[in-house]
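During the reporting period the student researcher (J.K.) took over the structure-prediction task from the postdoctoral fellow and processed the backlog of single-chain submissions. One of the processed entries is reproduced below for the supervisory committee.
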Amino acid sequence: MAVTVASLKAATTMLGIAAFLLFALPLATAGPIYETFPLPQGTNGPESLAFDLLGAGPYTGISDGRIVKYVPPLGFIDFAFTAVTRNKTFCDGKNATADATVGRICGRPLGIAFNATQFLFICDAYLGLYVVSLLGGRATRLVSSAGGIAIRFCDGLDVDLNTGFVYFTDASTNYQLSNISQIISSRDRTGRLLRFDPRTDQVTVLARCLTSPGGVAVAADSSFVLVTQFITGTVTKFYLTGPNANTTQTLLSGVTGADNIKRSEQGDFTLTQNPRPFDLRALRINGDGAVLANVSIGGPYANVRSISEAQLNGLFTYIGSLYADFVGRILGSGLSSIKS
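J.K. obtained the following structure tokens:
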């Protein structure tokens, strides 16, 4: 299997180089090149994206409770689901983002990420933490509460590929996804950072009193996690090891509408910023909070209210949004650290 993975990664790299040679010169004058991958009809909200270890994807959760996988030339196909009560006849095309009753029946996957053995971990906004194998199908629920309190708004998620720990956020212990406007208007401070250990099935509360923690990303060396707080527009560093273990530091402030955050192959991080409706930006920062890039996201997103994720994959930047009915891919976004 190691040979197969290496071969596939090598082929992917060669294709990326070919794409770069084809598009690098035009990009010098033409700017970013956008592509869109439409979601299944009647759905939207590809809030978080993931690629498996073979580079396939993106995978994403959508508004009617499905997790779908992009397979060219077919487009997005059904991959997995969380809710045991999910029924395609009732659920397909429904909007669980805005309707908690639908969400409890059909599920609403948000944050997703693969571990080192190709299992996909899923934050279902209404139902808790789940996992599914690379074969897809119905996912298994792992956690629905932490510290004796129900997880009401499972949101951001990342997996430490070294330790296997799953870091995820409970955006609010008072409100659910369907009540997001109340979370913002009340400036809710009941969010939590959680850690799940797959070896013991134990969940630990690492931090409390967070203001709508939307995204989480673990460092490549497992020494810290970064957490975004949507309401306050801050990026917080939670130390996991060393003399500062179990303490926090504010790395960035003023990142209005900060949502998901993702670690790149180079070890730095990308996140989104939504200063105002339809004013969409993406940032790349390092683990010390230095801003390495700050770019505008336009093209097909000109009429999208906000974006939730900017993820680097090879030469491309993939964009997630709670509102778009497509996944966007950008060549030449300005976020990539690959130099021409």
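The committee noted the following: The chain has four helices and 27 strands.
J.K. will present the remaining backlog at the next meeting.
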